[in-house]
Backbone:
């Protein structure tokens, strides 16, 4: 899925404050829903329940943004910990509604999260993993928008999937050198974007 | 074709430590010099990041079915949050 982000992500959070327009809200949804879905699924929720948890999380986020008086302090990771708190709460809500479902109880990692710091830190670590994956996914999406499509395809086929550079060059109609260069060019840009996203705290 | 860069310059380029102005010149050279392009490809650059990208792809693939629900969820929630003329009850 390619996101159409026209401004920095910091301004995405800014635009969400005080009640966003639909376009901003959709941008926010596409930015964070995959990691929230993954977080819920890895905590043992079914597809449908994870979908519910994502919806409830993002509705709560939208409502909270409307009433938010001040922007997040990007230097302190406030947005991440705030989103994590809401996501954990909503996953727990969905799990509680299905307490009689033995299949879910087996994976009820969040059941004692409030009382058991070890379990809670396990869940927090899972959220952190998904957060880092999301930063990487967003960086890759941004690079895919920025560079020539053939450069990005060459990077995927050659550097990520290890295909023969001669075959990749022939397939894409570029030189073998261009295939080699794609690896360095894309990785360098991805690394920079990840740093920028981390600095924005979003 | 410009002169081939020394090994150190090629490594600085590969590890992202070469200034942007020098990168453009070097990239132009690499486009036409098969020996330098191949030497660049042999450097073990970015392997950790590449492995993270592969891990991301695997993890997203594992829950591909769940993720495929999201476009419909996005439309449904957008209707809930912003409303649609079509969704409003008719008088």
Residues:
């Amino acid at each position: 899925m390619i996101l159409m982000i026209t401004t920095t992500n910091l301004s995405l959070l800014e635009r969400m404050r005080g009640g966003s327009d639909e376009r901003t809200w959709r941008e926010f949804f596409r930015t964070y829903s995959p990691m929230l879905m993954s977080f819920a699924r890895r905590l043992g929720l079914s597809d449908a329940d994870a979908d519910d948890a994502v919806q409830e999380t993002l509705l709560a986020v939208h409502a909270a943004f409307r009433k938010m008086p001040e922007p997040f302090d990007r230097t302190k990771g406030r947005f991440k910990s705030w989103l994590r708190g809401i996501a954990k709460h909503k996953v727990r809500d969905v799990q509680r509604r299905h307490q009689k479902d033995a299949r879910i109880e087996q994976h009820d990692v969040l059941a004692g999260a409030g009382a058991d710091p070890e379990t809670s830190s396990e869940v927090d670590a899972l959220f952190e993993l998904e957060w880092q994956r999301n930063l990487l996914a967003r960086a890759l999406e941004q690079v895919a928008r920025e560079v020539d499509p053939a450069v990005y395809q060459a990077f995927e086929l050659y550097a990520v999937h290890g295909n023969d550079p001669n075959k990749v060059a022939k397939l894409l109609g570029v030189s073998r050198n261009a295939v080699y260069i794609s690896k360095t060019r894309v990785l360098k840009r991805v690394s920079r974007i990840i740093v920028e996203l981390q600095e924005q705290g979003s | 074709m410009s002169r081939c860069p020394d090994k150190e310059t090629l490594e600085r380029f590969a590890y992202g430590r070469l200034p942007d102005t020098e990168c453009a010149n070097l990239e132009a050279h690499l486009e036409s010099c098969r020996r330098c392009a191949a030497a660049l490809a042999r450097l073990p650059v970015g392997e950790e990041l590449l492995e993270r990208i592969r891990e991301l792809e695997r993890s997203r693939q594992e829950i591909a079915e769940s993720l495929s629900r999201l476009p419909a969820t996005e439309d449904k929630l957008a209707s809930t949050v912003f409303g649609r003329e079509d969704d409003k009850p008719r008088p």
Residues 61 and 134 of chain A are 18 Å apart (CA to CA).
